[in-house]
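G.,

No rush on this.
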Amino acid sequence: MKNVFVETANVKAYHSALSALEERGAEEACIVVVDGAPGLGKTTTMKQHIAQTGSIYLRAKKEWQPKWMLNELLDELGVEKPRGIEQKYAKVVSELALRQQLAIQNRKIFTLVIDEFDHCSSRPAILETCRDISDMLELPTIFVGMGKVNDNLKRFPQVASRVSQKVRFDVMDKEDVRRLIDKRCEIRVADDLVTFVAKMSKGYNREVLEAIASIERFGFRIDVGEDGITMADMAGEKLMNDRASGTAIIVPEVL
C-alpha cells in the first residue's frame, strides 16, 4: 500500500477550521474541537498536521491529572522535567512560547493537539490547565475526541467559550472512497469493486484501508485487466470484516 496522505472532505474541513482560527476575533478563542466516530481518519489527519507544522501531539489518558499531563508534555518537548508542579507549568509555557515564536518566523501555525480527549473532557483540573496554557500564549489547542467532547464542554462555559471552531469528521462518500483507493492502492480497482467497498465500509477510512490491503494481496497474484480488478475477479474472497459483527465480508460476483 502506498504511504500517501489523502486529502478527503474531512481533511479539507479541518484545514478550513485552522484557517478560520487564524482570522478569529477574540484572541483567547484558541480552541478547536475535532469530533467523530473511531475509524474516520482523525488521528491520521492530526499526525500529518504535526509532521507538517512541528506542533505537539499528546494522547490523553483516562486517569490524567495536571501533573501527569505536564510531565508528558515536557517529554514531548524534549526538555528536563522540574520537580514542582509550578515549575513544570512554567517550563511548559516557556518552551511552547519558544516553539510558537519559531513557527511564526517560519510562517507556520503551531498548535497543541490532544487526542482521545473524551477521557478528560469532563475533568475540571485538566480543562483549566489546558485553558490556562492556551490563554497565556494565545496558543491554538486542538481537542480531538470520539463524539463526547462538545457535549462535555457545555458544563464548563469558561472553556466552551474559548472554542472558536468545531469540526465533525463524517463517513466518506463514494467520491472520497474512490480517491483513497486511487491514491493508496498499488493495483487499479474497477468501478464496481469501488462501489462495493464504499457500500460495505460504510465510508469508514479504517475499513477502506483494510479492503485495499485485501485487494492488493489478491491482485498481486493475478493478471489484472485494463479496467482494474473487478468484483468478478475477487468473487469469493474476503474483503474486510464487518464493523458491527466482526464477521468476514465476502465479495460476490456482482452487486
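When you get to it, here's the other one too:
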Amino acid sequence: MNERVPLLEVNDLHKHFPIREGLLIERNVGAVKAVDGVSFDVSEGETLGLVGESGSGKSTTGYCILQLLKPTSGSVRFEGTELTKLGREEMRKMRREMQIVFQDPYSSLDPRMTVGDIVGEPLIVHGIGTRRDRGVRIRELLDVVGFNPSFTNRYPHEFSGGQRQRIGIARALALAPKLIVCDEPVSALDVSIQAQILNLLKDLQR
C-alpha cells in the first residue's frame, strides 16, 4: 500500500542574499544565508511551527514556500508538484490552494480598499463566482472570523490591530486553500489579543 504524499514537502531549502560592493561596477563579496538547509513535511490537517529568534529566516522560509521569494536552491513540493520549477502563470493558479497571513496587520491591508474589497480580492483575481456570489462569500467569511457582515463598506483604519488581522485571515480563507502560511500573525498585536487570534486559527483548522 502506497504511503500518502504529504501536502507540503520542503527539502534542503536555501535562500542566500548576495552582499555587493562597488559604485560603478558592483561585485559580490559574500552572502547572507537567511535560510540554509531547511527540510520538513506538512501533512493535511497538520500544524507546523518554525521557532527561532528574530532574523533567523522564519519569514523568508514562508515566502520561499509560496515562491514570493525564489529559493537559491532546494525543493518545495505541494501535493507532489515541484513549485520551484513552475512559471509565473502556473504558480498563480497554484496559489489558489496556498495563502498567507502576514505579520503586520497595519501594512498588509490597502487603506484605500474597503473590507469587502480586501476580502473579495482573491475571488476576483482568480475569476471565481459572479458579483452576487462573491458578495455572499464575503459576508460568510466575515461571519467566520467574528465580524458583522455589515462591515463590508468600512475601511481598515476604522479597526484595531486584532480586528485587522481577522480581516487578513478572512482574505486568506476566501479561496478555501489547503495550506495557509502564517507569518508570525500575532507578534504585532497586544498580548490580550494574541490568544483570540490563535484560538480563531485553531477553530478554523477544525
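The longest strand covers residues 27-42. The longest helix spans residues 191-205.

Enjoy the weekend,
O.
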